[in-house]
Amino acid sequence: MKKKYSPSELPAAFCPLPWTQLATSVRGFVRLCCNTTALRQTDGSRLVLGGPQTVTEVWNSPPLRAARKQMLSGKLPELCRFCSQIEARGHTSKRNSLMNRQPDWLGDLKELIASTSPEGALPHHPVSLDLRLGNVCNLKCVMCRPDTSSKWVRDFELLQRQSPLPQSASRFLQHPEVPEGSHEWYESCELLEFIKTHGSGLRRLHFSGGEPLLIPMHKEILLTCVKQGYAGQIRLSYDTNGTQIDPEWLKLWENFAAVELNISIDGVADSFEYIRYPAKWQDFVDQMTLLAQWRWPSYSVRWIITAQILNIFDYRQIFDWVSQMKLSLSGDHRHQILWNSVRSPECLSVATLPDALLKEIHGEIDEQIAAAPSDPKSSERLALLSSLKQHLTVVSRIQANERPELSDFLQYVAALDQVRGTDWQRAAPRLAQALRC
Ligand code: SF4
What we know:
Blueprint: H1 17-20, E1 21-24, E2 30-31, H2 55-59, H3 62-72, H4 81-88, H5 94-101, H6 109-114, E3 128-132, H7 152-162, H8 167-174, H9 191-198, E4 204-208, H10 216-228, E5 235-240, H11 247-253, E6 258-264, H12 270-275, H13 281-292, E7 299-307, H14 315-324, E8 335-341, H15 355-371, H16 379-396, H17 406-420, H18 424-427, H19 429-434
Parallel strand pairs: 1-3, 3-4, 4-5, 5-6, 6-7, 7-8
Antiparallel strand pairs: 1-2
């Protein structure tokens, strides 16, 4: 068993990720983790993996060395403001959670620190790669955009031509205004070569996208790990829409140490099909049934419900479906539900709801918490209701004049419906009724 340390035994601003993991954006920009923007070089340009820059060069490049040195000197880099802000409010940040768990793949944290040169360089290669291999995707979810879903590109062109959009949504969809990097960044770097040569040191591979299961390079990486004999010591993890899971993937994954799947489920039936357009609910149910029947003991699923205005009334249906499939809510222990929330485009955030409606939802959640039996079987449901309530409490405290306009939401979904031939009121009937549309 690897030794674990209490945070007081380590530098106050230490985060293990810059010592263990190389993370990229969909355009190959190098980041400290998925919660930061790209690292900048001294001339202000973004640090990019690809072209002439190899994994080895980037790993000990000046921006990464500077971030490590700053953490060891007791201050989180400005890029880590997401964690700093959460910690300043007394909540648990990604950094805190990692330090609390100290998963085995991180290695011995004190040894990592001791191996750092005065310039912030490390003698070892990353043990984890967090790879976003471009934007190829089969879906165009309402809260996504062209930069992260290739399917969104055409819809955005049509929206720009046909319908006026709220300013904030337009800004969000246009990101990045000046396109840099390339969605095929991995074609021009020695990523596969690095895995062939140094894969024996890898302990974790995380894939996101786009939809990683549709990206050929992702499969090439897995096959390389199997062929080189490294697969058995690597944990895989994914952010996936779940619609591409088939028996072939399950068979390939069984070569690895473990597989963690983060699968989005933002609604049931019509609500699912509207939010995760143009996925088909029945196909998704079939794929999840296949997963539920998988007997391999080393996989786990985190169901991610991303709370937004369109599904805020649907959480009970989602709980019931997951429960009925015995995929958690005290069914299968390998399955867990987590909340996330839509922050952009702002008009889809729960903060867009009028106060009276937020109060009504609060009241319903309170009633359910009060009515829930206090047996162990109900504990997961209770924890989820409490965390949704906490989330809504934070939203309710935002000043009314800082909230997105409800008219922006109505304008956005009307524009989407015009381009896609969909009907948001059919997908979210309770919301439509509450807003008296
Ligand atoms: S401190 Fe937070 S934002 Fe910075 S690298 Fe660690 S987890 Fe990411």
